[in-house]
Design goal:
heterotrimer; A mainly alpha; B alpha/beta; C alpha/beta; A: mainly alpha; ABC transporter involved in vitamin B12 uptake, BtuC; two-stranded antiparallel ribbon; C: alpha/beta; six-stranded mixed sheet; four-stranded antiparallel sheet; 54% helix; elongated
Chain lengths: 298, 242, 613
């Protein structure tokens, strides 16, 4: 394979993987604390994309403003989901919350169809992000391809800083191991859970915005498949682990892009790889790459 | 001066009536101990005080020496207790295994914002338990049982509680460590903290306690000073079945 | 009498319904007939997913995949060669497939069987996972099926799908299939095997101790459920006449999941009611997507609104009525009649080393839970195992009963080594136990709990329960077991509770029920883990007599863990003492009471010489 093409694939894999990673982080934080697969997370990601679309393309706001507004709007939606659909079910069996999550996912998707219509809408990419940079050895890169992983890594870095260097972060890590003990220390558990939802949604919003720029369009069901794949990425990395989610996302991105790059005949099976890998990982290393063992009640 | 007053406390787990009409009074500066065989309901009493289990009682009133204002803590959620000045080192230590020793201690000080005071208290805990200082960057899961117990006590001290509750601090410790732990309990008490101690190791607990209650299947069988109960043949009967 | 009445009413309603179906083509237009068909198909799908999830407790999100398999198998069999030739445009169909053809009924059965086969393939590796992981793995599997169908165009015509499938799914066909599925399901769930399925859901650990190979049971239930999925998919394909891979996305599974949640997880009646409500509601809600004219205002249809309202309803159901419409209850004609109190009575009739524990060690990671434990129990003995918290008593129980494998050492039961056997095998060898934190099958009645304990002694196979009217062994053996269970309940003074849910019993009765259930496996050796925990002095007094009676009446050897020293000292012939994993003493109660090491372990160091004398 020519260097030029390989570098293209590499950058593609890196940016797809880091997008999966950003979404996966949200899954992993919520699952780590509540043991809940937040099926609505992929749809939160979709909302982020739509908000930025409306802010910048429909209402012609500058990109910087649009992005900030989209992140804020998405975060509020994420918090509302927790407050309305999950919080009343904290003491209920976990399956109830899971079904509520499926309901919320349905709701957001179809609400989007009602409000935004089901038609895919094209996103106009800012030209500055699309102007190729050419290197002397023939490698051409599009700034967007570099921007995506850089932003993702910066954000995950910031999240890690928050988790490991601040008090709310300490509480969040503590809660995921032992809610009762953490409460005894005076931590208000619901606030910390809301923080986890808020942060996860903000990251999903950024991922949604960058996704919309990369595949320049938005549609109401765009969060479904990336959402499920990001959850798989979180399982790869070891559910509950933030660095694991990022690594899992990258791994998935590379598997998808590279398998198609090297074996173009398999491109139809691209989506199956993620699931096949998932089943294999679950069978041979159920805790994922960086995961701690989750205790089963026996 | 009374710090904690509990009248007719009852705790149920489903159909099990674990605590029946237990009344306890703790004065400022005291070490009070609750002893009794396994399953007598000791931990349930302490968990009820901390708000970790649903409980019924005629009254459960805590008076903090900070403002001398009596507050009912019955039915209050656990996270509010630390702010009032009550903290608990729970049974089984409940160290957060993936957090470092220092992070565990910091979590104990979660409600406080005075960084200088926190740093002082951290040094104080390290002076009580020098082993923790050596291991302050290690994860909780790598500590030995005795070290975890020290960490649990230290973490409960980090909120500067007026009332420190210790649930089975000697459980699973080698005899030499048991002596050390009880020595430290005395020391903490000597520095002005009131202590409620739940213990299976009755002998050691009675030796340090000013006042003791013996629980038998959920209700208070005997009470008195530590020295009185130490010489009471019924205490032995309560443990070994007479 | 009651049974005759119920049977008559059931047959009468079925005839009425059949008459209605016969007239339906004249009474109803095509649209309503289609809805009626969909209700039946959805009910089949819901029943099969409910069997997997609601009854047996396996969280599966893969149903759409099995539906897809069934739909394609059936469609490929009923399509004519000419139709196939015309449809495969992009790639040629496999020649062997072109001429394969089968009648509709055969295609339905094959659809179910092929789906069941794939279900089995999935179940064997994947069911080792639990909870959410199982859900995600099955979801992944369903997606893989879908992608395979899209990409194997020579077999499936790929993303173009299949069109012009003959509309063989008539009202009689769909409701007939539902009738058969319903009959088999109800029969199975009413047999003792059905109790076993629910027992696995309620408490897998306890089920193992009843001698049940829970993995096998789970694989069975999953495979059966997949059969239903395939059947439902096939009926669906022949109703809609067009299928393509996009029809079988995860949304399809969610739809079925919603039906069983709305109806009540674990309730067969609920699945039927749920499919009726959800199907009609989804159709009825179409009005919000159609343009309406009120007076002179034209309100345009709002696409998507239907699902918005629907998902809101689902969230509200789960928040405000979590258990669904039926909960776990079932429909019974008896609700229309006053309840008679039924009782059955039938009379019942009724030194070597039983257990040899030698040098047993148990380590978790580096931590030693049991350090060198050795003791023997003779037939008819009541042995106590005592020690302070964390001494390793329950670990010792778990090693003996097969939940943990000893790190080293041997355990012989009735002369045979049992170290390393699984709990269900240990149970079959003649050992049974209770648990510290009572583990009953909480949603089952008291009688069912005991009957599940007898399942290992029954000879009939699970598949016979699908048609007990043919394989009458099921009925005979179940009624035998029932009578025995009633006797047991009577002996333990629980007969008054026979039809109560186990979780509703008072605490002391729950303890006794757990023992009754253990006795139903007909053990020679019984392990009791803290039988007196949570009892008041009077109750524990009764317990002492009860334990002695157990030994005498049931010819048992008993090993018990207990903290209530009064019970231990009075009831045990011999006592073993553990402290922090170390076997520190053994002897008669009097010896133990006087042993300084024991006193020290219980009262604390120094107590034995100290003041307490």
């Amino acid at each position: 394979m020519e260097l030029n093409i390989f570098v293209q694939h590499f950058i593609n894999a890196l940016s797809l993987g880091s997008l999966y990673g950003l979404v996966a982080v949200g899954y992993t934080m919520v699952y780590g604390i509540l043991r809940l697969i937040n099926f609505a997370h992929g749809d939160i990601f979709m909302l982020g994309a739509y908000f930025v679309y409306f802010a910048t393309i429909v209402y012609k706001l500058p990109w910087a403003v649009g992005v900030v507004l989209a992140i804020i709007g998405t975060t509020i939606c994420g918090l509302l989901v927790d407050r309305i659909a999950y919080k009343p079910l904290r003491e209920a069996p976990r399956i109830s919350a899971l079904i509520s999550a499926i309901g919320v996912s349905f709701f957001i998707e179809n609400f989007a169809v009602v409000v935004f219509t089901g038609m895919p809408r094209p996103v106009v990419q800012p030209p500055i992000l699309m102007k190729p940079i050419e290197f002397s050895n023939g490698v051409r890169l599009i700034p967007l391809g570099i921007l995506v992983p850089v932003v993702a890594f910066l954000l995950v870095g910031a999240l890690l800083w928050l988790l490991y260097r601040t008090k709310p972060g300490l509480a969040m890590r503590a809660i995921s191991f032992d809610i009762e003990t953490t409460r005894m220390m005076g931590v208000s558990v619901n606030k910390i859970i809301a923080l986890a939802f808020g942060l996860g949604s903000a990251l999903a919003a950024v991922a949604g915005i960058m996704w919309a720029l990369r595949y320049p369009r938005v549609e109401p069901f765009m969060g479904m498949t990336p959402g499920i794949k990001a959850f798989i990425a979180a399982v790869f990395g070891g559910i509950g682990s933030v660095p694991g989610a990022m690594i899992g996302g990258l791994l998935l991105g590379f598997v998808e892009i590279m398998s198609v790059a090297f074996f173009p005949t398999l491109s139809g099976y691209k989506d199956a790889f993620a699931f096949l890998l998932l089943i294999l990982i679950l069978l041979f290393r159920p805790t994922g790459l960086l995961g701690e063992k989750l205790e089963d009640k026996i | 001066m009374e710090m904690l007053k509990i009248k007719n406390l009852n705790v149920n787990y489903g159909a099990i009536h674990a605590v029946r009409d237990v009344s306890i009074s703790i004065d400022r500066g005291e070490i009070v101990t609750l002893i009794g065989a396994n399953g007598a309901g000791k931990s349930s009493v302490i968990r009820a005080i901390m708000g970790l289990v649903k409980a019924r009682a005629e009254e459960m009133i805590f008076t903090s020496p900070r403002d001398d204002k009596p507050v009912s803590i019955l039915g209050k959620p656990a996270e509010t207790h630390v702010k009032l000045g009550i903290s608990l080192s729970p049974e089984g230590r409940r160290i957060l295994p993936q957090l470092t020793v220092e992070e565990n201690l910091n979590l104990g000080a979660y409600i406080r914002d005075d960084e200088k005071g926190i740093a002082e208290d951290m040094e104080y805990v390290y002076s009580l338990f020098p082993r923790l200082k050596e291991r302050r960057r290690q994860k909780g899961s790598t500590l030995s049982g005795g070290e975890q117990q020290m960490l649990a006590v230290g973490r409960a001290l980090m909120s500067r509680p007026d009332l420190l509750m210790l649930d089975e601090p000697s459980l699973g410790l080698a005899p030499i460590l048991v002596d050390e732990v009880f020595g430290i309990i005395r020391e903490i008490n000597a520095q002005g903290r009131t202590i409620l101690l739940v213990e299976q190791n009755a002998f050691a607990a009675l030796k340090v306690a000013h006042k003791a209650y013996v629980l038998e299947v959920g209700s208070v069988g005997l009470s008195g000073t530590g020295a009185e109960l130490l010489n009471n043949p019924k205490v032995r009967a309560a443990y070994l079945g007479g | 009498m009651r049974r005759v009445r119920s049977l008559t009413l059931t047959i009468f309603s079925i005839i009425l319904f059949a008459v209605f179906l016969n007239k339906a083509p004249e009474l109803l237009n095509g649209y309503w007939q289609r809805i009626l068909n969909l209700i039946a198909i959805n009910a089949i799908l819901a029943l099969s997913l409910n069997l997997i999830y609601g009854i047996t407790g396996m969280f599966s999100l893969g149903h759409a995949g099995f539906m897809a398999i069934g739909a394609y198998v059936s469609a490929l069999l009923v399509l004519s060669p000419a139709q196939k030739n015309a449809m495969w445009i992009l790639e040629d169909i496999y020649p062997w497939l072109l001429n394969v053809n089968a009648p509709f009924i055969v295609s339905l059965i094959l659809a179910g069987l092929v789906a069941a086969f794939f279900g089995l393939l999935v179940a064997l590796p994947v069911l080792r996972l639990g909870g959410d992981y199982l859900g995600i793995a099955t979801l992944g599997f369903a997606e893989i099926i879908r992608i395979l169908i899209t990409n194997t165009a020579r077999l499936t015509n790929g993303s173009l799908g299949l069109k012009g499938i003959p509309a063989y799914t008539t009202l009689f066909m769909s409701w007939g299939c539902l009738g058969i599925v319903l009959l088999c399901t109800v029969c199975m769930l009413r047999s003792n095997f059905g109790g076993v399925l629910r027992a696995v859901r309620d408490d897998e650990v306890a089920a193992k101790m009843m001698g049940i190979n829970t993995f096998k049971v789970k694989v069975l239930a999953f495979t059966l459920g997949c059969f239903g999925g395939g059947l439902g998919g096939a009926l669906m394909g022949n109703l809609i006449t067009t299928i393509d891979p996009r029809m079988f996305m995860i949304t399809q599974t969610y739809n079925i999941l919603m039906i069983i949640v709305v109806g009540g997880l674990g309730s067969v009646t609920g699945s039927i009611i749920g499919s009726f409500l959800v199907t009609t509601m989804l159709e009825w809600l179409r009005f919000v997507e159609n343009p309406i004219t009120i007076f002179n205002f034209n309100i345009p249809g709002i696409p998507g609104m239907r699902m918005v309202i629907f998902s809101l309803l689902l969230i509200m159901v789960i928040i405000f009525r979590r258990e669904g419409i039926m909960g776990m209850r079932e429909f019974s004609w008896d609700i229309f009649f006053p309840k008679p109190k039924a009782k059955s009575k039938a009379p019942r009739e009724k030194s070597e080393t039983v257990l040899e524990v030698q040098d047993v060690k148990l380590k978790f990671g580096g931590l030693s839970a049991i350090d060198n434990l050795s003791f023997n129990i003779k037939r008819g003995q009541i042995m106590g195992l005592i020690g302070p918290n964390g001494a390793g008593k329950t670990s010792a129980f778990n090693v003996i009963s097969g939940f943990y494998k000893p790190t080293s050492g041997t355990i012989k039961f009735l002369g045979k080594s049992i170290g390393g056997l699984s709990p269900n095998e240990v149970c079959k060898a003649g050992m049974s136990r209770t648990f510290q934190n009572i583990r009953l099958f909480g949603h089952e009645t008291v009688l069912q709990n005991v009957m599940i304990g007898s399942r290992i002694r029954q000879k009939y196979s699970w598949w016979m329960t699908l048609a007990p009217f043919i394989f009458t062994d099921v009925i005979r053996e179940d009624s035998e077991v029932k009578a025995q269970a009633m006797d047991l309940l009577e002996q333990l003074g629980l007969e008054a509770f026979a039809d109560e849910e186990a979780s509703a019993l008072p605490y002391g009765a729950q303890r006794r029920l757990e023992i009754a259930r253990a006795l139903a496996t007909k053990p020679e050796f019984l392990l009791l883990d803290e039988p007196a925990a949570g009892m008041n002095p009077q109750e524990s007094e009764e317990l002492m007599n009860f334990i002695r009676r157990l030994r005498d009446e049931f010819d048992l050897t008993i090993l018990l863990i207990e903290h209530d020293m009064k019970v231990v000292m009075n009831v045990c012939d011999y006592i073993q003492v553990l402290d922090q994993g170390i076997h520190i003493a053994q002897g008669t109660p009097a010896e133990i009471k006087a042993n300084p090491r024991v006193i020290e372990a219980y009262l604390g160091a120094g107590a034995s010489e100290g003041g307490a004398a």
